[in-house]
Write a structure and sequence with these properties.
The complex is a heterodimer of chains A (676) and B (341). Chain A has 676 residues and is an alpha/beta fold. Chain A folds into 5 domains: 134 residues, Rossmann fold (3-Layer(aba) Sandwich), CATH 3.40.50; 191 residues, FAD/NAD(P)-binding domain, CATH 3.50.50.60; 84 residues, no CATH class; 164 residues, 3-Layer(bba) Sandwich (FAD/NAD(P)-binding domain), CATH 3.50.50.60; 57 residues, Alpha-Beta Plaits (2-Layer Sandwich), CATH 3.30.70.20. Chain A has 17 helices and 35 strands. In chain A, the strands form 12 sheets. A 5-stranded mixed beta sheet of chain A has the order 1-3-2-4-5, with helices on both faces. In chain A, strands 11-8-7-19-30 form a 5-stranded parallel beta sheet, covered by helices on one side. Chain A has a 5-stranded parallel beta sheet with strand order 21-28-22-23-24. Chain A starts with a strand and ends with a helix. Helix content of chain B is 29%, strand content 13%. Chain B has 11 helices and 10 strands. Chain B starts with 5 loop residues before the first strand and ends in a 24-residue tail after the last helix. Classes of the chains: A alpha/beta (676), B alpha/beta (341). At the A-B interface, α13 and α15 of A face β8 and α9 of B.
Chain lengths: 676, 341
């Protein structure tokens, strides 16, 4: 600890160097940094302390502000993501404006990156010096009150979106659900059983779907897509395209006669995963919510050739519910918050040609198999080969198709081991004489009742082969392999290559981000990672919020997830939104841009680049202005303004350049560097 | 000598245009002659350095220094005139921020000599002679000032009281500034605070430009000879680099008015540290390339293609401000012998 009496320049900065237990102190000489910082001209007092975030640590700040008249505070500790708010509040309790604080990150940016004590201590000094140089230029800022519209938009009607919507609606708040497909239900509606309890998926899902459909607080917009989102936390304006169903929802009773009478069938690539057919006017599945069918315009003979109209002819309602003239509708409404629950896609197994999907008839995807074992599916639950007649006598299930693979996705898709085990169980149940082989890399069954389910399968007689499948082929080498699919795999437990002849192969593909997740993230102005999954505010402590205020995420759009995790996330996101709604008004960070109205020349560089449409142009005065409430403080316009008349509060030139100079405290002045 | 205020004007690395610009204030020059005694002005009167050296310190009331600091003679004279002058004005873009001479900071002294004394097509120098600071000849030793690697602005060498930007400054602004200074000297009127940039509006040139401005979306850039610009529309929107939006006003937007993009000679606006970087940042912000959802690598290619249509970016964006910019110069020790940017 070091203290001194007369700091120069009128500013009295308090500097606190945190040990973070041993996280920082084991590499950085924290006492040395504090002593050094105490000698900086602007610094009134510098201390080091075990845990600055503890109440005792915060008390230090509070007391020094009161007793030593600190005007500014610097804490060198962890990332501002963790504790900026903690220390700002401590400053406030001491009587300072919370923005008179600056944080130096000497943990993530320093002690965690190296074991070199000298280098780490030097860097800690540089970061602390930067914070001190910056903080003396800080100005007091006042937070901006924003009113929260109590309505919420939920994008995606899978199980995550359904749970989020029901939580909010049951709490008395209005929810708009926008679903791209004709029905809500998502992937869960396609499944037969859910692991590990083997509940009938539809049986537990459809009551929730019905609740959504009938809930007075829910406006359900299926066969619809969000086209535009404007505004900011509490005040978003949503534009939705409600695609033409060609069925009038006001009159249709959902009797299904039109579907029955429609003379044309097509392969159902979506719900039946290409394994079954559907009519051209269709409901994806019998329990679909809403009940109204939709005409597949691409394949409808009336739309193609102008003749047929069978559906219209047989529609019993008065007036007739079939409306070939229907057009897409654009709807606009206001919401305060958005929950994105847009789900996932399955990895396209054709990308791994050596597994033979598409060339070898009896190689199936997991989703095809789900539909096959589903009593409501195309085979009414019978497990059959592609000829739809023969039952397989042996089945191989290939784990990690596209997951944990350098060439495709490095991550583990989390659910595949469990559903592959579920498949094995279902095969044993339906075809007791069939041999089942599960080829896995590692068996990953962390979850309540999951390991027990694995043990159950071990007893049911499944053959577990630990090894990544190299190849699936029909090229027989010995008579026993004739007419079979041969799975070539290294059995790493016995250290030998094996060729396993089977009748059927099921590929368990990776869960991946939706194909258009990047566009969706741009539409909602939040981030997605390299894999396309949406990025949460904090991976551990804030998993359903995003870096954009008012936009939350739930379910597999954030990363591979099973049903219970998706449900929890949906509920968690709803709780976050409900909290904001109950507050009614929230205080937003005052870090915003503003344009000096006297100096703007009206060059119009900035006007079309604001991602939040917060910049308006005054034709009469020929100057631009930032609407403070819309501004999110991203700084795009500040950087772009060629005249330097847009400034970002808390990120002024003076603050940033001082910070840079502070970082370079031990470097020779620039004048000496300029060669003569 | 009379008791009239003393005026000096001297040149460093300059083209001579600044001297001409003083004469270009037309009949006001008579007023200048009436008010001032000329104490040193090599362009128009035969003064020698020893005359200046003989003056007491602070003898010259106003010294208009034009030109950058390129060699040891410039630097010596800057120190001498600083000592002998009450008010030292960095007159014109070279003195203010380095201007065209400072573009040679992108290369080294050796490379500059090579270009000028070896590779110049209009040159006849079979022995490859380059200037030396000292040469012994039959008659004795001849000396020349030392040519520096780095061109500096006047204020990088001595303290400067006022800056009058422009290449050269515009006559109305020159006269306005002279009037303020004269009022200060003769009538004791308050002078602008030291360090002020005078003769500017402190608003971008766009303010003075009457072209119609819209939101900008630029798909490619043109050099002035490549297109005939629309007479009404903002030049930048037409793909002609116009530095007006990053440049202090005061010139009356003369260049954009006649269809030539602003070169940027009046320097950055107040609060802007680096005019070139600011302009680059603005231009980068309005480049229109690619489609939404395009792969990053492909998008980068599309953007690069647009950027490639800007000829000589550093010479364009830092045409006048290199010495004063955050870039300052390229590394002298660059491996290509020219210095690395």
């Amino acid at each position: 600890m070091s203290e001194k009496v007369n700091p120069v320049g009128g500013e009295r900065v308090g500097v606190y160097i945190c040990h973070c237990g041993s996280n920082i102190a084991k590499v950085v000489d924290v006492a040395g940094v504090a002593e050094w910082a105490g000698k900086l001209p602007q610094v009134e007092v510098a201390r080091d302390y075990k845990f600055m975030c503890s109440s005792l640590g915060q008390d230090l700040i509070e007391e020094d502000i009161k007793e030593r008249g600190l005007t500014k505070v610097v804490v060198a500790s962890c990332s501002p993501h963790m504790h900026e708010k903690t220390f700002r509040t401590a400053c406030e309790r001491g009587g300072l404006n919370p923005f008179m604080f600056e944080m130096a990150n000497i943990r993530e940016h320093d002690s965690w990156t190296t074991d070199d004590e000298a280098a780490a201590t030097l860097k800690a000094k540089a970061l602390t010096s930067a914070a001190v140089e910056r903080v003396v230029h800080h100005q007091p800022l006042e937070p901006l009150p924003v009113e929260i519209n109590p309505n919420t938009l939920v994008v995606g009607g899978g199980i995550a979106g359904i749970s989020a919507a029901l939580e909010l609606a049951n709490a008395g708040h209005h929810v708009y659900i926008v679903e791209r497909e004709p029905s809500i239900g998502g992937h869960m509606a396609q499944l037969d059983k859910t692991f590990p309890t083997l509940d009938c998926s539809a049986c537990i899902l459809t009551p929730k779907m019905v609740d959504v459909g009938q809930h007075p607080n829910i406006t359900l917009l299926t066969w619809s897509e969000v086209e535009k989102l404007d505004g900011y936390l509490g005040n978003f304006t949503v534009s939705v395209r409600k695609k033409a169903r060609y069925v009038n929802e006001e009159h249709c009773t959902g009797c299904g006669i039109c579907i029955e009478k429609c003379p044309f069938k097509v392969v159902d690539e979506v719900f039946e995963a290409g394994l079954g057919e559907r009519k051209v006017i269709y409901r994806p599945f019998p329990q679909a919510v809403p009940k109204y069918p939709v005409i597949d315009k691409e394949n409808c003979v009336y739309f193609l050739r102008g003749k047929c109209k069978a559906c219209q002819k047989f529609c019993p309602t008065e007036p007739n519910s079939i409306d070939f003239e229907q057009e897409d509708q654009m709807l606009t409404f206001q919401v305060g918050n958005v929950i994105l629950a847009t789900g996932y896609d399955l990895f396209d197994v054709k990308r791994i040609p050596q597994y033979g999907y598409g060339k070898l008839a009896n190689v199936f995807t997991s989703l095809e198999f789900e539909r096959m074992v589903n009593a409501a599916g195309p085979t009414e639950g019978k497990i059959m080969l592609r000829d739809m007649e023969t039952s397989p006598k042996s089945v191989a299930i290939v784990h990690c198709v596209g997951s944990r693979d350098e060439n495709y996705h490095k991550y583990c898709s989390k659910i595949c081991c469990m559903y592959s085990l579920k498949f094995a169980h279902l095969i044993h149940e339906r075809l007791p004489d069939a041999e089942v082989y599960n080829c896995y890399i590692d068996m990953r069954t962390p979850g309540k009742g999951y390991e027990e389910f694995y043990n159950r399968l071990l007893k049911e007689g499944t053959h577990f082969i630990r090894g990544k499948v190299a190849d699936v082929t029909n090229a027989a080498r010995i008579p026993e392999e004739e007419g079979k699919l041969i799975v070539q795999v290294e059995d790493t437990l016995i250290g030998r290559q094996r060729r396993i002849p089977v009748d059927m192969v099921i590929l368990s593909p990776a869960m991946e981000a939706k194909l258009d997740s990047k566009e969706v993230s741009q539409l909602f102005k939040m981030g997605c990672d390299f894999d396309g999954f949406f990025v949460e505010r904090h991976p551990k402590l804030d998993p359903v919020a995003t870096m954009t205020e008012g936009i939350f995420i739930a379910g597999a759009c954030q990363g591979p997830k099973d049903v219970p995790d998706s449900v929890s996330q949906g509920a968690a996101a709803a709780a976050r939104v409900a909290g904001l709604i109950n507050l009614g008004t929230v205080m937003m960070e005052p870090i915003r841009a503003s344009i000096n109205q006297d100096l703007c020349s009206g060059c119009k560089i900035c006007n079309n680049m604001c991602p939040y449409n917060a910049i308006i142009f005054h034709e009469d005065r020929k100057v631009s202005e930032v609407l403070t409430a819309l501004c999110q403080g991203c700084g795009t316009c500040v950087a772009a303004c060629p005249s330097g008349v847009i400034s970002g509060a808390h990120f002024t030139n003076e603050q940033l350049f001082s910070q840079i100079e502070g970082i370079l405290w031990d470097v020779r002045p620039v004048k000496e560097l300029v060669a003569v | 000598m009379s008791s009239k205020p003393k005026l000096a004007m001297y040149w460093g690395a300059a083209c001579g245009g600044c001297e001409i610009s003083v004469l270009n204030i037309h009949e006001h020059i008579l007023k200048v002659d009436e008010i001032f005694d000329v104490a040193f002005f090599p362009c128009i009167a035969d003064f020698k350095v020893h005359h200046v050296e003989s003056y007491p310190d602070g003898y010259i009331d106003v010294c208009l220094w034009n030109g950058a600091i390129r060699n040891s003679e410039n630097e010596e004279m800057a120190h001498l005139l600083r000592k002998k002058s009450k008010v030292l004005v960095a007159y014109g873009s070279c003195a203010y921020e380095g201007c065209i001479p400072a573009l040679s900071n992108l290369t080294s002294k050796e490379a500059t000599f090579k270009t000028v004394y070896h590779d110049n097509p209009s040159l006849d120098n079979p022995e490859g002679i380059i200037p030396l600071t000292k040469v012994e000849v039959a008659e004795g030793v001849l000396t020349l000032p030392e040519f520096y690697h780095t061109v500096k602005s006047l204020d990088q060498v001595v303290d400067v009281d006022y800056y009058l930007p422009g290449c050269p400054p515009e006559p109305p602004q020159i006269w306005a500034v002279l009037q303020v200074v004269v009022a200060g000297l003769l009538e004791g009127a308050p002078l602008p605070p030291a360090g002020s940039i005078v003769g500017v509006t402190n608003k971008a040139v766009c303010e003075e430009c009457e072209r119609v401005k819209s939101e900008k979306c630029i798909e490619r850039f043109y050099r002035p000879y490549q297109i005939v610009p629309d007479p009404e529309q903002c030049l930048l929107e037409q793909g002609l680099i116009c530095m007006g939006l990053a440049t202090n006003g005061g010139c009356g937007a003369l260049c954009p008015k006649v269809g030539m993009g602003c070169r940027g000679c009046y320097g950055p606006l107040p609060g802007v540290e680096d005019q070139g970087a600011k302009m680059l940042s603005a231009v980068a912000s309005v480049i229109a390339a690619g489609e939404p959802g395009m792969e990053e690598a492909e998008l980068e290619k599309k953007i690069q293609a647009v950027v490639d249509t800007i000829a000589d970016p550093v010479g364009t964006f830092y045409r006048f401000s290199m010495a004063h910019s955050m870039l300052r110069r390229a590394k002298v020790s660059g491996s290509n012998g020219k210095g690395e940017a």
